[in-house]
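agent> step 3/5: call structure_predict on target 'Glucans biosynthesis protein G' (Methylobacterium oxalidis).
agent> reason: downstream docking stage needs a structural representation; sequence fetched in step 2, passing through unchanged.
tool.input:
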Amino acid sequence: MAGALAAGPFAAPLAAQTALALPPAGARFEPGTVVEIARALAKAPYAAPRTDDLPGSLRNLSREQYNAIGTAPGRALWAEAGLRFTLEPLHRGSIFADRVSLALIEDGAVRPVAYDRTLFETGGFVLPEFQEDPGFSGFRLRARFSGAELSDFALFQGASFFRLLAAGQGFGVTARALTLRPADARGEEFPRFRAFWIERPAAGEDRLVVHALIDSESASGALRLGLRPGEASIADIEGTIFPRVGIDHLGLGGMQASYLFGPHDRRGSDDARAGAYAAGGLQIRNGAEEAIWRPVHNPDTLQISSFLDADPKGFGLMQRARAYAAFEDDVQHWEWRPSLWLEPLGTWGEGAVTLLEIPSDSEFNENILAYWRPKTALAAGAETRFAYRQFWCWEPPEHPPVARVAGTRSGRGSGGNRRLFLVDFTGEAFAKPGPEVETTLTASPGTIARQVLYPYPERRTMRVAFELDPGSERACELRLALRRDGRQITETWLYRWTP
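tool.output (status=ok):
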């Protein structure tokens, strides 16, 4: 690890290099340090992160060339300490041009991480010489899951994006530290990570704490993340936002994933695979404890859906398809991608879980975005605090006490422009024949032409088959649930049909 900390080859102090008032080497790091930095930053005019120091040889790297730059063997931070984690700074280059400062917190003191070319291997590409410390583009964490060998755990890189994994998974859904004006006529604003402070864990400790500074034209912010790897990896997140201006379109708990095509939506996909998506739907448990499942799709035009609520219990972009046969993809293995379930800590008041579905022709585009949009705008100069817990998981921590949607399929109907839908509900309620099941099915606008129930007790499944006749409409909102003895026994299935 020689040369990786502040005593590197660059003479300029880190705070001067970044034009941010960051704590110098050896300074005490207190619980409110990043909050105070963000508060002071919000009182000053916005200054974009520096990119003019990045040579063209790095800026013009292809995706493949950039991905070939990795940590040299044995050079990860803490690699020789026998901890449950290692930390790997990520080089700037390609689309990751923004400069991010990294520092460790050791024995309560700040230890800036200085740039060192020998930290990296490049696959043959020669890294340029820098006259000043160029910083980094982010960092990667590896962890020992259940005492095993080190493997990928977390990635913080790009805008204010980060990803975690549970044991045995591959990277998929991406979280956002802060979301501002997505799909807004005024244009989306992308807050950016500016600096990180990572607390060195004690020997044997299974939790890592990351502090992050966020900045954008409209606001600055401080984030504290407590990260725990496991069969379900958990992130406990506390944040404070400091608006420079009034903010009327804020997104908390933002998350995004790719959806190209699946069993109910193969629009324009001439593809040998059965599906290509990192998340199949949006799951919500609203303030009234209603369990909702909204399959996502790849539309022809931008679709925005708002699910009004007060004090939501949780929401997330979920990957419910866990069988190889659901995708038949030997490279991407979408069945290994995490679900991301979020539970607010404290009351969040009135607002809406908001879903954006963006047209995409590439499986690498994260075209599905979900977030909580508070009803109340933020005033300039105010401070807003929030907290939530994320579960990066194979399955969310608690299943609703009702049958859940196990599948949605769609295809051509019996005539005209009718569409046939097959919706499967699976749960113990359908494990054996019981009292008659009542179907609650509506279309607005449009009409339901016919509907049939198909029980499959050996699979604990009830299939609802129905046809939608949209007439001349260009969008129809569908709502479906099953009831027995006057009580709802399934999730509420919601769907927006568009041509």
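agent> step 4/5: record observation. Residues 259 and 277 are 4 Å apart (CA to CA).
agent> proceeding.
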